[in-house]
Amino acid sequence: MPDLRDAIFFISSVSDVSEILPLTAWLFVAQKKMPYTLLGILFLISSILKIYSLITAELHINNMPAFHLLALVEIALVYCFYNQLIFRKIHWLALIAISLANVLNTLFLQDIHSFNSLAWAFNMILLIVLGLMYFYKIYNDDYDYTPLNERPAFIITSGWLIYASGALFTYLLGTEILSGTPDGFYKNAWVFQCISNILKNVIIGYGFWLIGKKCLT
In this structure, are residues 49 and 66 in contact, taking their beta carbons and an 8 Å threshold? Predict the structure, then answer.
């Protein structure tokens, strides 16, 4: 079904390019302050890697090393972001363990030239846990009466949770999806990751816009 294949490739391309949206919002709207600077750095790196993966895919060049690097960078910076947000400090031993798990997956389980679906699935589960921990924190706050829809961190966390929950299914099936032709449900399941990534970037971009808006009021 070439039409379906072309549609999926188009959505995938939009997903890659959409990384620029939160990066632009952070660069030109949001005030540069911790812990949001960590996410700004993440989107700078992810934009470069996603554009690289888009170009190399068009040239039929294996770009799986970029996904291995992106998985490590994304979970490390998001973990640091929520550590700062929840605990006001970074738990370095846990960060080292998380990073080591991604590196060991590349070295011993899923080669750098194949898709690291196990690492991505592990990272998405951890991201969901971090997001729920933040929600638990704001549930127990008895001093902040700011409406949730006006809290940048709440909006940004919602974006991450939508992304992680939508992408987890794809990453669990990553080997099957990327190793076959896009002609069946499982082969086309990559579209779940693409759509969840686009939603994540739009929502986090809005969260960055809220940061700038709060600074002006």
Answer: yes
Mean of per-residue pLDDT scores for the chain: 88
If one counts every other C-beta atom within 10 angstroms of the C-beta of residue 12, the result is: 18
The answer to pTM > 0.85 is yes
**Contact between residue 85 and residue 134 where contact means Cβ atoms under 8 Å apart:** yes
As given in the structure block, the two tokens for residue 186 are 């499982």
Give per-residue pLDDT as tens, 165-191: 988 877 776 555 554 444 444 456 678
For residue 106, give the nearest of 116, 98, 95, 96 by alpha carbon.
116
Nearest to 201 by CA among 15, 1, 3: 15
What pLDDT score does 178 carry? 52
Among residues 154, 169, 170, 152, which one has the least CA distance to residue 212? 152
Q: Specify the DSSP element, H or E, that contains 42.
A: helix 36-58
State residue 181's pLDDT score.
Answer: 47
Give the whole-angstrom CA distance, residue 190 versus residue 9. 10
List of residues 6+ apart from 45 with CB closer than 8 A: 70, 73
Joined together, the tokens standing for residue 213 give 């808006």
Rounded Cα distance, 6 and 1, in Å: 9
